[in-house]
Design brief:
Undecaprenyl pyrophosphate synthetase, binds farnesyl diphosphate, 6 strands, 6-stranded parallel sheet, alpha/beta
């Protein structure tokens, strides 16, 4: 059943989609804003602006079709290497996005969360993000994880530090450390691993995204640049996911 998104009536057709086998958690590497702009003779800024538009549609669609967790890679720990002017634009787009979308997301029961170290973001941006998380923390709909100043390796090291701290304070016994316990120290402690990781613009890399959590994810790479990725594209990738066979290192049922 399609949930009604308050303030927006769009038609979503779930043809050929198995509603009982939707991924619980979809994670997206939103890549190709720059190339999208270049192909049109536009400044990179316009690519990022159009990327925000694409994000709006995808969040709404994910919520409407009943995806429970959506994680998007909005700013990586490596993105600080970009020119200061582009970093500034990405930060102001993020702030503007939250300003403009927060009410609608809140009304639609979306819970906004952050992965990554937001304390290194410009103060005003960090405050905006924290406010959005606080305001939506009791919502029960889509959990929308914004990966901001996020890197998988940094996250794993931070988890290690937490574990070492807890072991030295006798809050964790060394022999109790296992995969499940380790995962509780990650930024995604409250989320299941993504079943589906989508990357746009044809690049076949994880780029330091959810390194621990994506161990068994199905990865779908699409050729479209992120600003062209729309609701139909999301449904297409879910169809591809549903046609994959997930074995988690095992063998096919019929071969048993
Ligand atoms: C990759 O495109 C995208 C990013 C570095 C950031 C993702 C940002 C957005 C989708 C827009 C902003 C959204 C928010 C919420 C701030 P690229 O610049 O690496 O593209 P390229 O590889 O073609 O150069």
């Amino acid at each position: 059943m399609i949930k009604i998104w308050k303030t927006h009536q769009n038609k979503i057709i779930l043809d050929n989609l198995d509603k009982d086998r939707l991924p619980l958690h979809v994670a997206i590497i939103m890549d190709g804003n720059g190339r999208w702009a270049r192909q049109r003779g536009l400044p990179r800024t316009m690519g990022h602006r159009s990327g925000v538009e694409a994000l709006r549609g995808i969040v709404r669609c994910a919520s409407q079709i009943g995806i429970k967790y959506l994680t998007v890679y909005a700013f990586s720990t490596e993105n600080w290497k970009r020119p200061q002017s582009e970093i500034g634009i990405l930060m102001s787009l993020l702030k503007e996005y939250i300003r403009l979308e927060l009410e609608e997301l809140h009304r639609n029961d979306v819970k906004i969360c952050v992965l990554g170290n937001i304390h290194q973001l410009p103060k005003d941006v960090g405050e905006e993000v924290i406010y959005a998380c606080e305001k939506t923390k009791n919502n029960n709909g889509l959990v929308f994880n914004l990966a901001l100043n996020y890197g998988g390796r940094a996250e794993i090291i931070q988890a290690f530090q937490g574990i070492l701290h807890d072991i030295s304070n006798n809050n964790l016994a060394r022999e109790d450390l296992n995969e499940e316990v380790f995962a509780k120290y990650l930024d995604t402690a409250d989320c299941p691993d993504p079943e589906l990781v989508i990357r746009t613009s044809g690049e076949m890399r994880l780029s330091n995204f959810l390194l621990w959590q994506a161990a068994y994810s199905e990865i779908v790479v699409v050729e479209e640049c992120w600003p062209d990725f729309n609701e139909e594209s999301l449904l297409d990738t879910i169809r591809i996911y549903q046609n994959r066979e997930r074995r988690f290192g095992g063998i096919k049922k019929v071969e048993e």
